Amino acid sequence: MWWFDIVSFSFAAVFLFVSALPYFGIWLFLHSIWLKLLFFIFVFLTYPWCFLILVAMYKKLRKIGLKPCVFNPKKDLKNLYYLEREFFFHNFASLFRPWFDHYFGLQKIFYRLMGAKIGKNVTFGRDIIIHDLSLIEIQDNVVLGQSCRIVGHLMSNAEEVILGKVVIGENSVVGGHVKIAPNVKIGKNCVIGLNSIILPGVELADNTRTSVLSVVRMPK
Length: 220
What we know:
Blueprint: H1 2-29, H2 33-62, E1 69-71, H3 77-94, H4 97-102, H5 104-113, E2 117-118, E3 123-124, E4 129-130, E5 136-138, E6 143-144, E7 149-150, E8 153-157, E9 160-163, E10 166-168, E11 173-174, E12 179-180, E13 184-186, E14 191-192, E15 197-198, E16 203-204, E17 215-216
Parallel strand pairs: 2-5, 3-6, 4-7, 5-10, 6-11, 7-12, 10-13, 11-14, 12-15, 13-16, 15-17
Antiparallel strand pairs: 1-9, 8-9
């Protein structure tokens, strides 16, 4: 599989370089400094999305996606490979965080292409980090506060990695700096307080409210 990755990304690099040549040609023929400035702004705002969409298309073509399971990273190389690729996609996209933070509509499109289920009228705050997008479902009218962290994997020990879905129900509000672990289901109309931590396996009923700085665990 590694050789396919090398060939794919080499092709992508050549494609992106060639596709940039027309931009350079147009730049040479623009004599006005103001036209050059406007053109530079246009390229600055649009071209990075070529990279992001290309990465998303690659993932779709390779059918790379995570499914809920518990696996041994020393033995189950297929799931480990998928998890590593998810990390790569996330880190690649983080290079363009300024675009993410300012153009939320494009951010949602990219997340959907990467496998996340995102409903209508979802609002993202700044500096949100979502790992393992194929395991994430965010339903309609959800608000995610600034600097939220959502992950779909957890390494409990050296021989066990847990992959689990995260579902956030309709009309819920997740406060800023909240951390949500895998295997979590948040019901409809919930409010998660600022700086809270939702630990693995938690299921919150509809209309649940958590206080600020709370740690929500599975009931014993």
